[in-house]
């Protein structure tokens, strides 16, 4: 097994070993499930470090024959041959590292999960395989297969281990994302039927090289290309999500267990951004120009709509859910700018929001475990009872509003800088969302940490989280416990990464330079 295959499929070993562990042995399940996320983390960090030292990532690419769809005499030997292909460049490397880091931290945070832990970790590791595979896939078929693994794993993780409305949230997630996947499958099928290949590099060559276009089995018209790009963008808009296709996201953020939301908000939403950049800008740059204005407009709508609704929420999970809608709008703004600053900003914002949302939902899980509720009206005065927790929560809020020196500032500043260069009036309107972000994030966090202290018994009345054990409720009655080492360590790691990217953005920019330069050449600039 080669490097990339080992990176993607190493969690399978954890799945196999978990099969032989008794479901009542919670400590062993926790230890083994967490340990299974470490090998891909080590391999991802190794690739990242080697890339910084000048190692050529394409040397890690791998390909093997998998299936031949047809064998017609007038076709070439490579037509309609789908191969098992994995590949990596600077763009996919950044997202692979993000996935590996957050998967390990989510596994650590799964200590808060108290019911049927074995099944939970089996699906969590399957979800990690799917996420890593999506970013490592080098052809459309394997990209789609890995994407469907994430869809199935998330459905069970939400539907089985979520809150009281978990089934509604799970089916909503399945319906919307299933429709997005169906539309994506249609686009993939048309591309394969017309070109005879699903390989990203060959598709790029056939779409851009006039000589290679003679290899097409059935050439595409300009209108056909626009329709294919439109289908791709709509499919990923559902998964991002863009307003008005966002309602499923709110339910998932509220009902899914916090470790799962760490991965959903931190990684799965970024698959849509990755797809728009990799396939939209990468494969259809000329056609993408025609959609850039509409993408920027939807980005501004996302930013303002999400921020305004977040202002009205009194439930912390709802605040963070609408905040995700708003921050994904910044990604669309960067892509709509269609320049180097905008594309880099879209990637920066994706990584920054991944880290910040993971930190936020890690703390939300601790809060739900301690207090039995995340209703802001039932919380208050936690700064005195839980000073360490309150400090991390305030740090998350400052990162969320885009404080300079933190990762969120880099993504927002670069994305808006790109849009100000091309559409200054639209960028000015979208910048209002940044002001609203400061209001809703600080208001919610300050109400929780320094607001009126409520009766803890009153908080128990609002208890909704089925993962909160009876022992935790007893702890509530006896006194609130601050962050413990097992919770503070992953929180510290996330804060350190947020600050590292904010202080030294070149950490991300370096692996992206070559990819962004190639895309800008395709765009003619």
UniProtKB/TrEMBL annotation:
This protein's UniProt keywords: Membrane, Oxidoreductase, Transmembrane, Transmembrane helix
Enzyme class of the recorded protein, top EC level: oxidoreductase
Domain of life: Bacteria
Location of the protein in the cell: Cell membrane; Membrane
Stretch forming the signal peptide: none
Recorded GO MF terms: oxidoreductase activity
Membrane topology: Multi-pass membrane protein
Major localization listed first in the record, in broad terms: membrane
EC number(s) reported in the record: 1.6.5.-
Annotated InterPro entries: NADH_Q_OxRdtase_chainM/4, NADH_UbQ_OxRdtase, ND/Mrp_TM
Membrane spanning stretches: 6-22, 29-49, 93-113, 120-137, 143-161, 173-193, 227-249, 261-284, 290-312, 319-338, 350-368, 389-410, 425-446, 491-512
A Pfam family assignment: Proton_antipo_M
Domain NADH:quinone oxidoreductase/Mrp antiporter transmembrane: 137-427
Presence of keyword GTP-binding: no
Stated family: Belongs to the complex I subunit 4 family.
NCBIfam families: NDH_I_M
Protein name, UniProt field: NADH-quinone oxidoreductase subunit M
């Amino acid at each position: 097994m080669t490097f990339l295959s080992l990176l993607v499929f190493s969690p399978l070993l954890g799945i196999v070993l978990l099969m032989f562990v008794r479901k009542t042995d919670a400590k062993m399940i926790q230890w083994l499930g967490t340990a299974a996320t470490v090998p891909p983390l080590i391999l991802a960090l190794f690739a990242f470090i080697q890339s910084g030292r000048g190692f050529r990532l394409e040397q890690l690419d791998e390909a093997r024959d998998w299936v031949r769809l047809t064998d017609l005499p007038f076709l070439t030997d490579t037509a309609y041959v789908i191969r098992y292909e994995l590949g990596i460049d600077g763009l996919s490397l950044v997202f692979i590292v993000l996935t590996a880091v957050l998967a390990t931290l989510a596994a650590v945070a799964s200590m808060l999960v108290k019911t049927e832990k074995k099944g939970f970790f089996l699906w969590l590791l399957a979800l990690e395989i799917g996420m890593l595979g999506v970013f490592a896939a080098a052809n459309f078929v394997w990209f789609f297969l890995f994407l469907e693994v994430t869809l199935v794993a998330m459905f069970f993780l939400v539907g089985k281990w979520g809150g009281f409305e978990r089934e509604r949230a799970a089916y909503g997630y399945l319906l919307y994302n299933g429709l997005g996947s169906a539309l994506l499958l249609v686009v993939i099928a048309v591309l394969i039927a017309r070109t005879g290949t699903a390989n990203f590099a060959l598709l790029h060559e056939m779409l851009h090289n006039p000589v290679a276009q003679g290899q097409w089995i059935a050439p595409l018209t300009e209108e056909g290309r626009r329709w294919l790009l439109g289908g791709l963008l709509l499919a990923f808009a559902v998964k991002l999500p863009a307003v008005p296709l966002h309602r499923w996201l709110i339910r998932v953020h509220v009902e899914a267990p916090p470790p799962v939301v760490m991965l959903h908000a931190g990684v799965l939403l970024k698959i849509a951004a990755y797809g728009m950049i990799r396939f939209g800008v990468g494969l259809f740059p000329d056609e993408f120009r025609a959609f850039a204005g509409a993408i920027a407009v939807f980005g501004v709508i996302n930013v303002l709509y999400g921020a305004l609704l977040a202002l009205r929420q009194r439930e912390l999970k709802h605040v963070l859910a609408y905040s995700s809608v708003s921050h994904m709008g910044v990604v669309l703004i960067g892509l709509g700018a269609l320049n180097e600053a905008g594309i880099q900003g879209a990637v920066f914002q994706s990584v920054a929001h991944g880290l910040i949302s993971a930190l936020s939902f890690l703390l939300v899980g601790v809060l739900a475990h301690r207090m039995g509720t995340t209703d802001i009206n039932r919380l208050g005065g936690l700064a005195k009872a839980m000073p360490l927790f309150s400090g991390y929560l305030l740090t998350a809020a400052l990162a969320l509003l885009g404080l300079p020196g933190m990762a969120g500032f880099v993504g927002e500043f670069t994305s808006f800088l790109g849009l100000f260069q091309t559409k200054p009036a639209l960028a000015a309107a979208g910048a209002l969302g940044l002001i609203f972000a400061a209001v809703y994030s600080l208001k919610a966090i300050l109400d929780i940490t320094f607001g009126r202290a409520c009766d803890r018994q009153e908080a128990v009345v609002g208890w909704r989280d089925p993962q909160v054990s009876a022992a935790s409720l007893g702890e509530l009655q006896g006194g609130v416990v601050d962050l413990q080492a097992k919770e503070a360590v992953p929180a510290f790691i996330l804060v350190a990464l947020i600050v590292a990217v904010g202080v030294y953005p070149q950490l991300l920019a370096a692996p992206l330079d070559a990819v962004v330069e190639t895309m800008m050449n395709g765009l003619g600039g």
